[in-house]
Amino acid sequence: MIRTTLAEQIAHDQARNKASGELSLLLNRITLAGRMIAAEIMRAGLHGKLGRTGEVNVQGEEVKALDVIANEIFLQVFANIEVVKSMASEEMEHVHTYEGERAGKYVLLFDPLDGSGNIDVCGSMGTIFSIFRRLEPGAGTSAKDFFRPGHEQIAAGYVLYGPATMFVYTAGNGVNGFTLDRSIGAFYLTHPNIQFASGKGSYAVNEANEPNWDDKTKAMVRTFREGRTACGKRSARYVGALVADFHRTMIQGGVYMYPGDKKSPNGKLRLLYECSPLAMVAREAGGAASTGTMDVLDVVPEALHQRVPLFIGAKDDVAEAVRLLQG
Known about the structure:
Elements: H1 6-16, H2 22-43, E1 52-56, E2 62-64, H3 65-77, E3 84-89, E4 96-97, E5 106-114, E6 125-133, E7 155-161, E8 165-170, E9 175-181, E10 186-191, E11 202-204, H4 215-225, E12 235-236, H5 242-252, E13 254-258, H6 271-284, E14 287-290, E15 310-314, H7 315-326
Parallel strand pairs: 3-5, 11-12, 11-13
Antiparallel strand pairs: 1-2, 3-4, 5-6, 6-7, 7-8, 8-9, 9-10, 13-15, 14-15
């Protein structure tokens, strides 16, 4: 059977939306970055690229060698492509704007290597991306292009690096998943029109953080653990890489949770690079995403590296988590 390639699907979406082709070019460049990062991950151990660099990023987290490599790949991939004027990354303190008179229509936000702590144990990792159309196309750029609610995204998605490399994205008309054929370097459609499984699945949360949760969060997670939720019994699964946990939740059902706690009242996950893009994917796949008090896609960012709590997954599961938190 001859499958649809990712390039063909992007071209099809372009024709259906009567688009100019610039978004298609942007998405294709992200697939290139994903293939390059996948290759780096596969040979990291052989080339001595495992472990930490000894530096700390803007998030206050220890930087892994592959974090730096993945971030640099994105900068290089878009260096000569004028469709993107500026980009922001979890690994960079400030917005990166390409010099010159290029007047790209879009800004790109990304987490170059989510779950990089798994590299030393051959665990799953991912890349997350978010695309906004610039408010005022031209030579200049503005922080206003980045500080916008997630429902204004025009495309979002992720690359999952595991036993297989997958590219999953939405441009506002459903979610499709593509698997990389490493022998020829092409992504093929393997998961068309992905929808959250309902009525089954798992709950994913780092239960080691329980001592720092408030009483309502403890009670909510305990209800899921004991199988007493209104949405049904859920098994416990937790990979420790957001992309991997989210992907499993979308395919098998359930909910992923990263609540705020005493140490991090606003949660740990970044709104612009992690929560907002995955919330768009979740919505297009029939799921939902909440901070516990509001829809993630309605949050207006106040800072480039803002953090928020995250409850994301099948609609019924997210609604149950929020109900228990607010009860």
